[in-house]
Amino acid sequence: MSDTAKMPEAAKVQAAAKVQEAAVADAARDNWVDRFAPKATKPFLRLSRADRPIGTWLLLIPRLGGIALAAVHTGVRPWDLWLALG
Prior knowledge:
Blueprint lengths: L7 H15 L9 H5 L5 H6 L6 H21 L5 H6 L1
């Protein structure tokens, strides 16, 4: 037998870890990570905040605007979309 079964503090820590794993405090309860992601990838997607992509939008919108302005001046080149999404 292990000593962790005898200590009630260990059980509390384990229960708290399960609750913490189940929900993120500032995320919506039914986000796409919880619904569609495989169980093995959920911790990594939560760590990267994939369910709250505001950083992606804050970087993508100015990048698309800059490429659009450059395309107006120099013409559209085939690799412009690669620059926008790469």
